[in-house]
Amino acid sequence: MTNYNFIAIEGNIGAGKTTLSTAMSKEMNTRLILEAFADNSFLPKFYAEPDKYAFPLELSFLAERYQQLKTELVKQDMFQPVIISDYYFLKCLIFAKANLDEDEYALYSKLFHIINDSLPKPDLFVYLYHSIEQLQKNIKKRGREYEQNITDDYLIKIQTAYFDFIKQVTDLRVLIIDVNSLDFANNPDDYKQIVNLINRPYDIGITRITASRTI
After folding, report:
1. Residues spanned by the domain of 129
2. Which long-range contacts (C-beta less than 8 Å, at least 24 apart) are formed by 32-35?
3. Which is nearest to 83 in space by CA: 173, 8, 6, 3?
C-alpha cells in the first residue's frame, strides 16, 4: 500500500528510474508511465552534436512528454488508481536549463509554462541520488551506444540543474534518497528498503534520506 496516488521517480541519467518504477508498478499493481526516450530521433544526434541539436531535442521531448502525460493522467481506472511514472514533466525545464543557451531557454520556458499548469503534479517526487562515478558505471553497464561518451561534466551539470529546481520547491513532497550504497536492481532487500521509504507519509517540502544496507 502507498500513501500517494501519483508518484514520480526522478534522477540523473543512469540513476535507475525506469528499473525502480517498473518493479514498483508490477509489485503494487499500479498504472505505469515510462518515458519513450528511445523513440526520439534527436537524442543520438544531440550527444554527437549538442550545440546543433539541443533546441529541437528539448522541443521534441516537451511535446512527447506533454502528450503522454495528458493522455495517461486523465484516465480513470478504479482497479488501478495509483500511477507511478519514471519522470516528472518539470524534467523538461531542468534539462532545457542545462542544455540551451539563454535566448533559447527564455523561449522554451514560455512554451513550457503555457502548458505545464494543465497537468497534475505528483503527490510525491522522488529523486534517486547517485555519485557521478556510480552513474557512469550504470551508464556503461546498460550499454546504450549513444550514451557512452557522456562526460562527468555533463552529468554534474544535470545534477546541479535538478538540485537548483529542488531548492525552489515550495508546493511538493520531495524525497531525496541517497542510494549509493544500494543495488536495488539486483538485491531484493535493497529494493524493499527503497520501496518502504517511498511509501512512508511525508509532509510538503524536502526530505533527505541516506539509504544503507543492513549487514
Report:
1. 6-210
2. 32/83, 32/84, 32/85, 33/68, 33/69, 33/72, 33/73, 33/83, 33/84, 33/85, 33/86, 33/87, 34/85, 34/86, 35/65, 35/68, 35/86, 35/87
3. 6
Rounding to the nearest 10 degrees, give the CA dihedral for residues 56, 62, 65, 67.
-100
Q: Domains in the chain: how many in total?
A: 1
Q: What is the pLDDT of residues 109-139, one digit of tens each?
A: 999 999 998 999 999 999 999 999 999 999 9
Catalytic annotation present for 153: no
Residue 96 domain-assigned?
Answer: yes
Give domain status of residue 165, yes or no: yes
- Name residue 14's amino acid: G
Does the residue 1 lie in any domain?
Answer: no
For residues 30-37, average pLDDT: 90
In a domain, 189, yes or no: yes
> Grid cell 555519485 — which residue?
131
Which of 51, 77, 86, 189 is catalytic? The answer is: 86
d(CA 129, CA 159): 9
The pTM for the full model equals 0.92
Q: What is the CATH number of the domain that holds 167?
A: 3.40.50.300
